[in-house]
TrEMBL record:
PANTHER family, A to Z: PSEUDOURIDINE SYNTHASE (PTHR47683:SF4), PSEUDOURIDINE SYNTHASE FAMILY PROTEIN-RELATED (PTHR47683)
Matches recorded under CDD domains: PseudoU_synth_RsuA (cd02553), S4 (cd00165)
Keywords: Isomerase, RNA-binding
Family: Belongs to the pseudouridine synthase RsuA family.
Pfam family, one: S4
GO molecular function: RNA binding; rRNA pseudouridine synthase activity
Domain RNA-binding S4: 2-62
InterPro entries in the record: PsdUridine_s_RsuA/RluB/E/F_cat, PsdUridine_synth_cat_dom_sf, PsdUridine_synth_RsuA/RluA, PsdUridine_synth_RsuA/RluB/E/F, PsdUridine_synth_RsuA/RluB_CS, RsuA_PseudoU_synthase, S4_RNA-bd, S4_RNA-bd_sf
GO biological process: enzyme-directed rRNA pseudouridine synthesis
Protein name: Pseudouridine synthase
EC number: 5.4.99.-
Residues making up the signal peptide according to the UniProt record: none
Amino acid sequence: MERLDKIISNMGYGSRKDVKKIIKDGRVKVDGEVVKDNNKQLDPQKSKIIVNGEEISYKKYIYLMMNKPDGVISATSDDYDKTVIDLLEVEDQVFEPFPIGRLDKDTVGLLFLTNDGDFNHRLISPKWHVDKVYYAKIDKDVTSEDVVAFKEGIVLDDGYKCMSAKLEVLNNSKEGSEVKVTVREGKYHQVKRMFEAQGKKVVYLKRISFAGIKLDENLEEGEYRELTEDEMKAIKQKIKMQ
Ligand code: URA
């Protein structure tokens, strides 16, 4: 059961305040009756809701893919900085989504957002072995010893031994290396700390894939879109979710 104003707001009819007015004005019918009580509890899957003469098709959850820009925090609110939620349109914010896992303020690339707690939990749990793939620029040459160390499990500064990770060197030059790293955990600053353990520094970090889904190249930094049905199907299969 959910509140009438929340249901309608979630369907993109404006903020909770806008929706209260729509309800008060008698523009909402539930199962054929005008309802003016915005607190009314109902099951949106079972009731027929009409707003401004138009039947609404209810959606409870939202699943988004964002290309996170530099300088933005992966959180729902922050006292100083812009958050990824601030980048969303109001009609998406009304679903109250949150980021799935965190990217550092200076990390860019693929971030999922949802309001589905179960989906979030499964994607961040190491139990489901969800791969996260990063493209990184490193200040020094990355060697085959580094590749082996990543495979065997890097020990971080706090003594934690990481799960085996795949490190591929894409390019070595005087300025350092470009690499691709695949990890299955999401420890705080994990990729940066893994390289620090090898005496090297990550100077640029971008997540390019998560749970087998690649960042849509058509998304500029700061842009986002809903995950497609095919993408959702592929992810849910991976995390054994109905
Ligand atoms: N590892 C990091 O160090 N930072 C991120 O943002 C993600 C993974």
